[in-house]
Amino acid sequence: MRDETLEPSAAGSVDAPAVANPQLPAVFTGVKPNGIAILGSHPATVLNAPFGDPAWLIYSCSPHNIEHRTLPRFDQWFELHTPIEDETRAFGYLKSVSEMPFVWMRDQRALKSGMFKGAREYPEAKLKGTSRFEQVKVPTGNFQRVKGPDGQIGMAEIHERRQSEIPNGDGLFSPHMFTSSIAYMLAKAIVDCEENGIPAIGLWGIMQASDGEYAYQRPGIQYFLGEAMKRGIKVIANRESCLFDMPQWKW
Q1: Among 204, 203, 186, which Cα is nearest to 43's?
Q2: Under the phi-then-psi rule, with left for phi > 0, alpha for psi from -120 to 50, and beta for the rest, what region is 51?
Q3: Where are the domains of the chain?
Q4: Distance CA 104, CA 96 (A)
Q5: How far, rounded to the nearest angstrom, does the alpha carbon of residue 75 sit from its chain's CA centroid?
Q6: How far does Cα 121 stand from its chain's mean position?
Q7: What is the pLDDT of residues 81-103, one digit of tens each?
Q8: Would you give the DSSP letter of residue 194?
Q9: Cis, peptide link before residue 83, omega less than 30° from 0
Q10: Which residues contact 122 (CB under 8 A, 6 or more apart)?
Q11: Residue 198 — left, alpha, or beta (φ > 0 → left; ψ -120 to 50 → alpha)?
Q12: Other CB atoms closer than 10 Å to residue 195's CB: what's the count?
């Protein structure tokens, strides 16, 4: 498998300062990391991540990385579903997460429950920003027969009221691009790279070649790859991931 690397003309500094961030594992304090590895769960490439290089931080997610394989190591786990009680989250997986020493979470009930000993609240307000909810009257595309003021029968489109979440625009990144756990992980990795002088982000176990179930996630992931490169962070991924490909949409 061949890695594809995209990096801007001004890549992250090789002479980055030592890490002193308390949210990073203690083993890296005073050691200059080479990068942050973002792990999805696709079996084709996930185990190609740099587990054997202690200078790489490993950020991981997904029940499949617990239920279908044993990762050699990881430094931070991301369980970002909210609510966490979901049909995709089996009891055995949640039990494993509850025993992890370092887990980023968004579900407020889970965070307050005390059941997840390593739980830390994902900094959503900082990275994604805050939002508000509004009731919006929207057309449904359906029509019904109505009687007009003149007594004539005509057709009118049916409207309904929906609750919409409206971003306040106060986060570091575009709130519309948080389309998957990987997108959330990339946002955190970008900030960690900037705050700790980490020069690279690598992605393994993430395949975006299909136009199937996860196609909607691709724009968000590609947005964060662009944000990383704009900040001088080197981005590495397997070529077969198709993460750097232009969209094939016809319009």
Answers
A1: 204
A2: alpha
A3: 3-130+174-241, 133-165
A4: 14
A5: 16
A6: 15
A7: 999 888 889 999 999 999 999 99
A8: H
A9: yes
A10: 78, 80, 104, 105, 106, 184, 188
A11: beta
A12: 14
Q: What is the pLDDT of residues 22-70, one digit of tens each?
A: 465 544 555 679 999 999 999 999 999 999 999 999 999 999 999 999 9
The architecture that CATH gives domain 3-130+174-241 is: Alpha-Beta Complex (3.90)
Residue type, position 46, single letter: V
Q: Which of 98, 89, 67, 104 is closest to 186 using CA atoms? A: 104
Residue 66 in 3-state DSSP? helix
Helix runs in the chain, H state only: 64-67, 91-98, 108-113, 124-127, 181-196, 218-230
DSSP designation for 235: E
Q: Which pLDDT band holds residue 222 (cuts at 50, 70, 90)?
A: very high
Mark 166-179 as b/e (b = at least 16 C-beta within 10 Å). Answer: eeeeebebbbebbb
Asked if residue 19 lies in contact with residue 179, where contact means CB atoms within 8 angstroms, the answer is no
Q: Look at residue 230 in the predicted model and tell me its pLDDT.
A: 97
Tokens found for residue 63: 């029940």
The 10s digit of each residue's pLDDT in 153-182 is 888 888 899 889 999 999 999 999 999 999
| Residue appearing with tokens 């990383």 | 228
pLDDT digits (tens, 9 = 90+) for 175-210: 999 999 999 999 999 999 999 999 999 999 998 766
CA dist., res. 76 & res. 25, Å (int): 8
pLDDT on residue 4:
54
